[in-house]
Amino acid sequence: MGLDRRNFLKIAGLSALFGLGGKAAVDIFAPGELEASMEAVPLTEGKRWAMVIDIQKMDEELMNKVTKACHREHNVPDLGNPKEEIKWIWKEDYEHSFPGQQHHYIGDDFKQGSFLLLCNHCSNPPCCRVCPTQATWQREDGIVMMDQHRCIGCRFCMAACPFGARSFNWGDPRRVLRKEDLKKLNPDYPTNRDYPTRSKGVVEKCTFCAERLAKGQIPACVEAANKVKENALTFGDLADPDSDVRAVLRKHYSIRRKPELGTEPNVFYIV
Ligand code: SF4
Ligand code: SF4
């Protein structure tokens, strides 16, 4: 099941090289510019889900709330050891969120702030290309899915993702399930009620709440954030010119993470 360390590092090195080989671009969209840039990204028929995070509206408390909502929704276990942390959505400092986009004159608020990160559901996802079992794949609507039953734990996808958006569950998620924890579980998350969490040794990540979208609901993080601050997070269909995400991107400047890698993230940050 495990990948030996030397091979794993080799793949990680290739992944870094992949990053260095990409096109260089400053991915800042002026109002209305997104439309022009989208011509370069072929959209499949139908939807192309995306999220917009309004940095001005997010604070530490709200980011914690949003993270809790996501992790509770998906029964993401807290194994109690930072080295075994499993994160579907998390906060990170400026340097690690937007490397290469720093300069001396950026305000302290920004430089010292935290930013909400999650899988970018990239239009050109390197993680999917390397998976030997197709346990991770991209749907027509752009969502990068994860089938934890097909995953063999090789972690190729983790090495290929340049955004650290994937976690490996080193410990058995079920070991944290005491009787009282069972009550806190979300029984609606599509898992077996008797074994409500996945097994040890598979990769975990955000799926844009695919299970909620199927029921016509918005992602749990968006719902939690917008209860506290309206439009802190906006979710919708980039392929629809009348969608909320398109409206908000038309109106505001936005950036994406590591644009020079050419993965075409579908998570945007209003700055
Ligand atoms: S952020 Fe990483 S895991 Fe998510 S689609 Fe992009 S490359 Fe894959
Ligand atoms: S760890 Fe799982 S999802 Fe990732 S590449 Fe290997 S089999 Fe595919």
In short:
30% of the residues lie in helices and 14% in strands. It has eleven helices and eleven strands. The N and C termini lie far apart (43 Å).
Question: Which terms would index this structure?
Answer:
binds iron/sulfur cluster; Alpha-Beta Plaits; globular; alpha+beta; two-stranded antiparallel ribbon
What features would you describe in this structure?
It contains 11 helices and 11 strands. With 271 residues, it is of the alpha+beta class. It folds into 2 domains: 34 residues; 222 residues, 2-Layer Sandwich (Alpha-Beta Plaits). Strands 1-10-11-2-9 form a 5-stranded mixed β-sheet. A two-stranded antiparallel ribbon has the order 3-4. One iron/sulfur cluster (SF4) binds next to helix 7.
What value does the average pLDDT take?
A: 82
Q: Can you count the helices?
A: 11
- Radius of gyration, taken over Cα atoms and rounded to an integer in Å: 18 Å
Count of distinct structural domains: 2
Q: Assign an overall shape.
A: globular
Order of helices and strands: HEHEHEHHEHEEHEHEHHEHEE
Strand content: 5-15%
Distance between the termini: 43 Å
Which oligomeric state applies?
single chain
**Low-confidence segments, ≥5 residues, pLDDT <50?**
1-44
> Largest sheet at a glance?
5 strands, mixed
CATH class of the largest domain: Alpha Beta
As for the CATH topology of the largest domain, it is: Alpha-Beta Plaits
The strand line-up of the biggest sheet is 1-10-11-2-9
Helix content: 25-40%
Listed once per kind, the bound small molecules are: iron/sulfur cluster
